[in-house]
Amino acid sequence: MTISELHVPRLTPARLVDRYAAVRRQTEKLCEPLETEDYVVSTMSDVSPTKWHLAHTSWFFETFVLAPFDASYLTLNPRYAFLFNSYYVQAGERHCRAQRGLVTRPTVAEVFAYRAYVDASMQRLIDRIANDTEHPALPVIELGLHHEQQHQELLLTDIKHVFWTNPLRPVYRAMSDRGRPTGDGFDWVSVPAGIYRIGHAGGGFSFDNESPAHRVFVDEFRMADRLVTNADYLAFIDDRGYHRPELWLSNGWSTVRASNWEAPIYWERTSDGWTEFTLAGQNALELDAPVTHVSFYEADAFARWAGARLPTEPEWEIAAANAPIDGPFVESENYHPAPASSPARDGDLRQLYGDVWQWTASAYTAYPGYTPAAGAIGEYNGKWMCDQWVLRGASCATPQSHARLTYRNFFPSDARWQFMGIRLAGAAKA
Amino acid sequence: MTISELHVPRLTPARLVDRYAAVRRQTEKLCEPLETEDYVVSTMSDVSPTKWHLAHTSWFFETFVLAPFDASYLTLNPRYAFLFNSYYVQAGERHCRAQRGLVTRPTVAEVFAYRAYVDASMQRLIDRIANDTEHPALPVIELGLHHEQQHQELLLTDIKHVFWTNPLRPVYRAMSDRGRPTGDGFDWVSVPAGIYRIGHAGGGFSFDNESPAHRVFVDEFRMADRLVTNADYLAFIDDRGYHRPELWLSNGWSTVRASNWEAPIYWERTSDGWTEFTLAGQNALELDAPVTHVSFYEADAFARWAGARLPTEPEWEIAAANAPIDGPFVESENYHPAPASSPARDGDLRQLYGDVWQWTASAYTAYPGYTPAAGAIGEYNGKWMCDQWVLRGASCATPQSHARLTYRNFFPSDARWQFMGIRLAGAAKA
Amino acid sequence: MTISELHVPRLTPARLVDRYAAVRRQTEKLCEPLETEDYVVSTMSDVSPTKWHLAHTSWFFETFVLAPFDASYLTLNPRYAFLFNSYYVQAGERHCRAQRGLVTRPTVAEVFAYRAYVDASMQRLIDRIANDTEHPALPVIELGLHHEQQHQELLLTDIKHVFWTNPLRPVYRAMSDRGRPTGDGFDWVSVPAGIYRIGHAGGGFSFDNESPAHRVFVDEFRMADRLVTNADYLAFIDDRGYHRPELWLSNGWSTVRASNWEAPIYWERTSDGWTEFTLAGQNALELDAPVTHVSFYEADAFARWAGARLPTEPEWEIAAANAPIDGPFVESENYHPAPASSPARDGDLRQLYGDVWQWTASAYTAYPGYTPAAGAIGEYNGKWMCDQWVLRGASCATPQSHARLTYRNFFPSDARWQFMGIRLAGAAKA
Amino acid sequence: MTISELHVPRLTPARLVDRYAAVRRQTEKLCEPLETEDYVVSTMSDVSPTKWHLAHTSWFFETFVLAPFDASYLTLNPRYAFLFNSYYVQAGERHCRAQRGLVTRPTVAEVFAYRAYVDASMQRLIDRIANDTEHPALPVIELGLHHEQQHQELLLTDIKHVFWTNPLRPVYRAMSDRGRPTGDGFDWVSVPAGIYRIGHAGGGFSFDNESPAHRVFVDEFRMADRLVTNADYLAFIDDRGYHRPELWLSNGWSTVRASNWEAPIYWERTSDGWTEFTLAGQNALELDAPVTHVSFYEADAFARWAGARLPTEPEWEIAAANAPIDGPFVESENYHPAPASSPARDGDLRQLYGDVWQWTASAYTAYPGYTPAAGAIGEYNGKWMCDQWVLRGASCATPQSHARLTYRNFFPSDARWQFMGIRLAGAAKA
């Protein structure tokens, strides 16, 4: 597969200019609540400094668009390629990930200047290729914008970890009212057995790991019509869920014991009851809101305790196939999942997108016939297909234009710092 | 599922007595080449001491058969339950795995006495329940025998690691002549698309993870009719396979760099060329023999380099469905994989069983509808379904009566000390 | 010993006000070349963030002066006591050292505001107790100022490590001309055997570890009249000093091998020869300048290679007893050791103070009769008397008013990030 | 210094033959209570397998005596030099210490055969050089015998750790009656200030680190006339000694917290009170016996709690200068320290030798003018002079002929597996 075969819709140049500007501006908007100091640090191996996110997303355009497609382009600083390459081995030597949070220069101001420089160069390039709808740079630009949207989500979850690590527990932004929760239970939605087609086909952008579309056989199953709530999860904790080895995978149990897990990462038990650290500060636990920041191990143990299981990724995609792509995305500016509203119609699945990514029971491996792109860009997804699980849906930190039915997110079994939650599934009712 | 629902054939008591004695005797026979000192140590976290294998397999019968089904049974030493429980959390406190190789008592002689004591007790129990073909102990005894056969294989691969760790490189047993290799290349065997049924159904023993039998849709594919040889693998090494990051999964590449891998674990480059440590000592590399002791990372990178891929486990089982269960098993007493013979008929798959376990592209997860047994025995397989890959077939260290079509072996991506090898697959020829 | 028994001269209140202001201002002056981002990070376990140094030195006055001696004092933020206590267990719970570089708030501006708040409170306290020359706060204030001067030196050596860790290698401040080196060799200065009195007695401030003054017997010895130079040290490197185990302590040799040491920490071999990273950037190695940033292991191995040894601390103090306390201190604003000038008179020791601290052959243990102060302040020095070596003199990062003959600096065997160098000694000439 | 300058008395050949045979036989006698399995393992990094001790002491004679002084000597197995060299870098490549406990071959029987082979060769050599009292091999043979005696002590303390690690807690040998304890308190013995000569001079064997004898000035001090008992130490524990940071060195406090120390290593609190694991099994704590298996950290904290301090090594040697070298050595076959008897005369120091090594407040550094021997043998003591403390006296595991006044034993601050105890000292009474 060549880059030009990426599943990318052709935008008109005018719309591409607008979209490029909007995505890039959104990244910077997310930085507005931050102090200069907040941009610098990495509080654990998964967390990158904000200024690294700002620079790395610019480096992506520089490396994969400007360098190959603009012969006149000169980099602002040749050392930046070393500092801001993440993991693209074929794109050259790079700075050690463990040291990202130790590098105080370039300063935040210099990084913003670097962004501006890349943006101006990109603007010129887009103008120049405006009339060539087959220009090979176009799909790479589209990929770069989706790449930047992924980093917008990481920027938020990373800064959440940075703020939580600080004993002063700073607030990123106060939460607005999110409407009335229903407080209801949930219903099962059933799907009959059959051969289904899953994966990306046809129009619109997708990452290479969503292809090729292909047939799967799935037996009859059912899926919960809403997410697991904090109240549901509390019942698991109160039933000694974190102290019953028979509920856990072996690695999960080892992790629970070694890390003294007693609750999701941002929960804290106080004399006034459970609280949860959010980007709006440390708040009383909201019982109707979806549980979030749980690992695969916890999702799996909870499901076992509940007498259910996690859905596989084909099941999730099949069940969600006809649902609209809406929900409380990052544009709602709450940065936290919201309680479910009442279902519009019987049998509708609620909270598919925009609250929390939903762990599936499917290991992240290649779709039959999957081939990554040639060259460094092919390292984007393929080389991570090992010891990770697929998550489906989207979260409150995902941009709406970034979400879609076939999206395959993936993280290791013990990751908890993303907005990750739980949807139950099970065999068809006897 | 209760234990009595395990997929276990009913043996007549007479045959069960014989089979029990044969399996137990075979374990001890494998110890004959060892010195007392060899039984004691653990050379890495995966390796258990021989005397631990001898005792643990006896503990299994004591805990899951004698304790529940023989009210008069008294254990030889109540501390043994602590020392020889492996990972059954629900069966009580247990000794730390990391310390298994530090415990010099009970002595080897005392461990053999423990075995004899358990065997005598088992003999009495089997005699007593001889006429009750529905007795609930019977399926557990059968499970215990298959459990013991798994440890026979581990005993050999563990002692191989112990001997290799020793700069004196002791010999376990000299290798006998293994016949003429063909030196041929290989052919592809094609299988058409369709819905297939895989997993264990019907007669004979199986582990719970092979169930339930279920339908899968598989697209047209092809599979190599023999294993990858040392000569094949040398071409990969000589083509700088261990130095080209684009061939590797990201975790695999990190492992290669961190561990300085340049070849399979037991290979050594000398001034006279490559040698390989075997249970018959350090020998010149046999070019026609299957490559063995490679990790999933290496199998996956090799396949990518070869322009192919690994088979999925449904593909392997579908392709092998009608093949006989034969090959050079442990009974051949060579303890090393053998070169392929010429195929009996065109289109026959060779070397399916008895040389090396074959890595598949399938992560080890539950079959749809899988439910482990209740209680401690349910920890046997289910709690390991995380961050491991399925291997299919059987190896030169597997007892013949232990191998079957639906067998799901599993190990993590970096494991190399088992007899693990590579079979290629690919999409149907264009 | 009570705090009031600390060896502290009585200053007039007016002079104390001036001295307090001068020391505090100097700390802030050292920060002028820094960007906000530079204040935040810790690049290894020994390095604290600049803003932590700024806050911790203020916390010291708050905790040991304002809290006990000003009943009306209210802290600016009660959480700061948790964040900025270093290691005083008896002063309460404290933030984990390993996380110092992960805390982005309080911001740099807030930390400066905290300093100003403490300074205003201290000003009021000093005014109030102006006429009471026996006030128990006075010796603690003096201790706090010397404590702050120690952190001034650490601030510089820590920021040097931060800048060196950055691939962009920022410059702190350009170096001014430092005059003509002599390029000469060195002479030995001999001292006869006898009973000598060492340690602090009489007037002026000292830390408790310099007391009590006491008698020692020392045999005849000689000491080099200047420091070991880069040229001297290059000869050791060129003679394969880092590759000859017989020159090294066993732990030193392990460290050399495990850390791949081939030169002092900030040296780098380029195609144009050796360079050295300084606070003025990466420069060509200055051959006449003292070697610096070597560990005890390297100092000891060099001395052995040179057929000499390091001086003991009694020897150093006895030999230096009548020398003036001058040299290129931090006030010279070069932040790097300078080549030796010609000796003023035959037999004068050169470079005793102000270039590099000098490793001695004496382990850091208590002087006979040593007793630390009661309470948290007693943790200042005493609890560190284990597995460290004494260094004598002072460095280019030491304030002149902080240096004195009896000063006992101390670091572990492998520490290299301070301005540490080598002076040779030996038995009397045969 | 050459090897022939080692402080070694000249033995007549006949006496040397006897002494060689006696020392070598004693090592093997210590092995009599062991099973073959016990010889193989290493239960922590400080512990070597018994069979390694047996082989290494033989390798010492082979390498430093037979190889240089017997041209006809052929080694039994050239790989043994690799396996059984401990830390003599200049003597060639050696096996990694961490793997000593993983090597099952040579077997125990083969190691005894190796010893017999070396002994026969040594016998021939000694016979040959019988009449040459100046033969350069003689001092090295004497050194080898003292080396072997050190390993006899290690063999016992190592096997004690091996047995204790085993949940079955095997018994090495039952303890015989050790007489009546006095149950008395203790007296102080005072020593006046002055210049004293310490270190080895004149006749008899000594290690190089005991030289040269030299003058030291010591102020008036006093030393306890018996060791600290278990009853004394229990008072420290009961006074929350392990939970009061102000009593501890900083590194000591970190170790206490990180390792959850609550008592000496072999103590265990049961429902019936404190017990202690000994080579005679797990016994009730004997209150009058000396506390043993405490680290320097614990000895130092105990002394501080008791309002005293540890003696320096000059103080210990000066105070003990005229005492006889007797006490319950290994020949008493109790392998555990004994309660003090009543003092023979007022002012006599009791328990100087033969119960436990006594921690001093002196770091292990070179005596003034110390020079190790040239070549590999010079690595014996000198390269360890870093981050260790001196212990004086001798223990219940020391051979009587191995003990002497000037002996400098040394271990790091956290070592506890040797028979290490506490004697208090202090300034002269006011």
Structure explained in plain terms:
4 copies of one chain form a homotetramer. Chain A has helices at residues 13-30, 50-69, 80-84, 108-128, 137-165, 230-238, 250-259, 296-305, 313-319, and strands spanning 188-191, 194-198, 214-218, 221-224, 267-270, 273-278, 281-284, 357-363, 389-393, 409-411, 420-421, 425-427. Chain A is of the alpha+beta class and 430 residues long. Chain A has 2 domains: 3-165, Four Helix Bundle (Hemerythrin (Met), subunit A), CATH 1.20.120; 188-427, paralog of FGE (formylglycine-generating enzyme). The longest helix of chain A has 29 residues, at 137-165. The model of chain A is unreliable at 1-8 (pLDDT under 50). Chains in contact: A-B, A-C, B-D, C-D. At the A-C interface, loops of A face loops of C.
Approximately how much beta-strand content do the residues of chain A carry?
5-15%
The CATH topology of the largest domain in chain A is given as paralog of FGE (formylglycine-generating enzyme)
Report the CATH superfamily of the largest domain in chain A. Answer: paralog of FGE (formylglycine-generating enzyme)
Specify the overall morphology of chain A.
Answer: globular
CATH architecture of the largest domain in chain A: Alpha-Beta Complex
Give a quick account of the main beta sheet of chain A: strands, pairing sense, barrel closure: 4 strands, mixed
CATH class of the largest domain in chain A: Alpha Beta
- Helix percentage of chain A: 25-40%
Greatest interface by residues involved: C-D, 36 and 36 residues
